[in-house]
Amino acid sequence: GEDVEQSLFLSVREGDSSVINCTYTDSSSTYLYWYKQEPGAGLQLLTYIFSNMDMKQDQRLTVLLNKKDKHLSLRIADTQTGDSAIYFCAEARGSTLGRLYFGRGTQLTVWP
Amino acid sequence: DADVTQTPRNRITKTGKRIMLECSQTKGHDRMYWYRQDPGLGLRLIYYSFDVKDINKGEISDGYSVSRQAQAKFSLSLESAIPNQTALYFCATSESTTGSHQPQHFGDGTRLSIL
Q1: Is B31 an 8 Å CB contact of chain A?
Q2: CB-based contacts of A59: which residues, under 8 Å, 6+ apart?
Q3: Distance from CA of B107 to the nearest CA of A (A)
Q4: Taking 80 as the threshold, does the pLDDT of residue A54 lie above it?
Q5: Looking at A1-5, A12-16, A97-101, A104-108, which range is the least confident one?
Q6: Quick one: which of A51, A100, B25, B112 has the fewest CB in 10 Å?
Q7: What is the per-residue pLDDT for A99?
Q8: Tens of pLDDT, residues B7-33
Q9: How far is B42 from chain A (nearest CA, A)?
Q10: Cα–Cα distance between A104 and B42 in angstroms, integer?
Q11: What gap in Å lies between CA B64 and CA B56, rounded to an integer?
Q12: CB neighbours of B97 closer than 8 A, spacing ≥ 6?
């Protein structure tokens, strides 16, 4: 299909790891992004990965990219209540420079 | 001060009214975008502009128009508002470097309610 797919909800306990999954559409996509949206705020760029990479780690965040399956994941280690937010996956498709295509967002709820 | 500023932050209006949402940026970016967000639907692109003389329709441009008054300003208009245009609207900007890392930077949004 044409859509970037994400599951809508994820709940985890504080201190556990969270894994948010995304399936994108274009095997020639160059960059893939994760954005975070807190209540009442705009989207904040969290991290990104270039398509020639398999993994990128940035403090508590680990991004894994499986190009064969067009699957992207975001792992948050030691999840805190402040990580509760909506997380959006986005792809920069090779054929449409400058545009980003967003998934519907995953609502992460962290329980104390 | 925010790099991408949207005004107003909230607006309630009536069906049939003309509405303008404004966006200004201090990032010096050439590219600007308007999105709407509806619960469970993610972000959908309304219009985008790659420079002052360039305007392009996105996925859902019907019922909307835009004006790129300057590099730093991009406004979105609803000529005759209807209730199903009630949503959260976001402006975003990005650099124009072709083929390289071009993340978009978002404003805090305008919550628009049409009665």
Answers
A1: yes
A2: none
A3: 6
A4: yes
A5: A1-5
A6: A51
A7: 82
A8: 999 999 999 999 999 999 999 999 999
A9: 4
A10: 4
A11: 12
A12: none
Identify the CA nearest to B102 among candidates A89, A65, A48: A48
Q: Which of B40, B98, B103 sits opposite A97 (nearest CB)?
A: B98
Q: Residue B83: helix, strand or coil by DSSP?
A: helix
Phi, psi (rounded to 5 degrees) for B83: -55, -35
A100 within 8 A of A2, measured Cβ to Cβ: no
Whole-number pLDDT of residue B41: 81
pLDDT digits (tens, 9 = 90+) for B33-49: 999 999 878 899 999 99
* Structure tokens given for B101: 């890392």
Cis bond before residue B39 (omega within 30° of 0): no
Q: Which of B41, B69, B44 is nearest to B55 (CA)?
A: B69
Q: Letter for the amino acid at A48?
A: Y
Is there a contact between A92 and B102 if contact means CB atoms under 8 Å apart? Answer: yes
d(CA B99, CA A47): 18
Q: E strand or H helix at A17, and its extent?
A: none
pLDDT, position A27: 75
**A 14-43 residues inside an 8 A Cβ radius of B:** 30-31, 33, 35, 40-43
Alpha-carbon distance B101 to nearest alpha carbon in chain A (angstroms): 7
* B97 close to A (CB below 8 A): no
